[in-house]
Design brief:
Strand order of the largest sheet: 1-2
Distance between the termini: 11 Å
Order of helices and strands: HHHEHE
Shape: elongated
Number of helices: 4
Structural class: mainly alpha
Largest sheet: 2 strands, parallel
Helix content: 40-55%
Length: 88
Amino acid sequence: DPAGEGRDSDRDPEETIRRVVRGCYAIMRDDGELRKVNAMPPEERPGYFIGLRNNYPLRREFPATSVVRSDSPSFPAAELSNIGFRLV
């Protein structure tokens, strides 16, 4: 259950949204890889960036992802739906 049903964070809608989004998109991985580009000598940057693009892992769009709805009153169903997740 990507939304963390039954966990303490169900009481924190923002944490639930963060968990669901992170389950689909490892933004911190992308951030780290792009920060490495800045630390490189300028002549190495284009090749490294092209390597990142050519080897980018498959990432599903939010509308292609189903989230199991929690019965918790603080579950952010509307917010998740508004950013494209399918609730089941």
